Amino acid sequence: MYRASRSVLADIASEGTTYAQRGDALNGVKLLMSFEFVFNLHVVKGIMAITDGLCQALQLKTQDVVNAMHLVSTTKTLLQNLRNDGWVSLWSNVRQFCEIYDVAIPDMNAPYFDVLKSIRRQSRQKDIVTMEHHYRVDIFFAAIDRQLQELNTRFSERATELLILSSALNPIDGYKSFNIEHICKLARDFYPKDFSDQEKEHLSYELQHYKLDIPIHLELKNLSTLGDLCRGLVTTEKYKLYPLVDRLIRLVLTLPASTAITERDFSAMKIVKTNLRSKMEDNFFRDYLVVYIEKEIAETLSEDSIIDTFYMMKERRAQLK
Fold first, then answer.
1. Can you list the pairs that 70-75 forms with residues at least 24 positions away whose Cβ atoms lie under 8 Å?
2. 98 class by beta-carbon count within 10 Å (0-12 exposed, 13-18 middle, 19+ buried)
3. pLDDT band with cut points at 50, 70 and 90 for residue 125
4. Please, are residues 165 and 182 in contact by the beta-carbon 8 Å criterion?
5. What does the alpha-carbon distance between residue 277 and residue 296 come to, in Å, rounded to a whole number?
């Protein structure tokens, strides 16, 4: 892809139809052939290779919160490992890439000069950093630190605790993560208004029966997700025997693992309410958005069923069918 992009820009730089087009293409070729671009390209590639799985998972419309927790944890660990041990491998790949595509490699022991930074440092007389320090610390470490900071901000200690406690309900591997103390703490600390004091006290006793019953049930012992467990409790009618556990599982399943749905909603608003539809009333706008966003559900509804429901709401003068 790099070779093809550089070749296309070189052709445009020599055969472009206008001076501006040829000039922009020439600047693009110079940028592609610069060492800083190649280095940044490899840094971004290394980080995205680690974070891609988490990004793809969090873009799903529905996401198992326990699986999301594990993805966040592994992503943080891999990013930290890249920061601690990834410099040598990255530098080797960058050198090899530059040799293949004839990109000039600067002397890494030479002092790094930045016009803006040098102006700021004139009065402070700080030691001049080397090229290696600039690329390793100011770019490589800084880029990874920003990613780790973003993950730590989005998944705070309290959010992480919630995810860890929620994993105690996960049925995977024969309910090996089942923990009565963690489940009671989950209900007590994170859902205080959804359970009365009496229900919180009774939950531990209900969990003791649940622990001896559910993991050996033929239809429930080989489940892998909370969603499967919730459906299994309904089909086997075990939810009637363990209503508090069933309620807690449903509450955990409603946790948003990301802001992907909200971001889609805002994107849909920009598409639906345009300049030509700027006078749309809020009620109609809200109903329109529901149909637009939930297209998969809307496609299952027939026109006749919609008309029948419309007639059942109140008497209508117009005949629609």
1. 72/151, 72/155, 72/160, 72/163, 75/50, 75/51, 75/151
2. middle
3. very low
4. yes
5. 24
Quote the DSSP letter at residue 140: I
Identify which of 44, 49, 2, 35 has the alpha carbon closest to the alpha carbon of residue 132: 35
For residues 280 and 273, is the Cβ–Cβ distance under 8 A? yes
Question: H-helix or E-strand containing 163?
Answer: helix 157-166
| Residues 6 or more apart in contact with residue 112 via CB below 8 angstroms | 128, 129, 130, 131, 133, 134
pLDDT tens profile 67-84: 777 788 899 999 999 999
Q: Where are the beta strands (DSSP E) in the chain?
A: none
Contact 226, 171 (CB under 8 A): yes
Q: Which residue type, as a one-letter code, is found at position 108?
A: M
Over the stretch 145-167, which tens digit does the pLDDT of each residue have?
A: 999 998 888 777 777 788 788 88
Per the CB < 8 A criterion, the answer to whether 223 and 207 are in contact is no
Which amino acid belongs to residue 20? A
Query: In the numeric block, which tokens belong to residue 90?
Result: 């990255």
Tracing tokens 């326990």 back to the chain, one arrives at 66
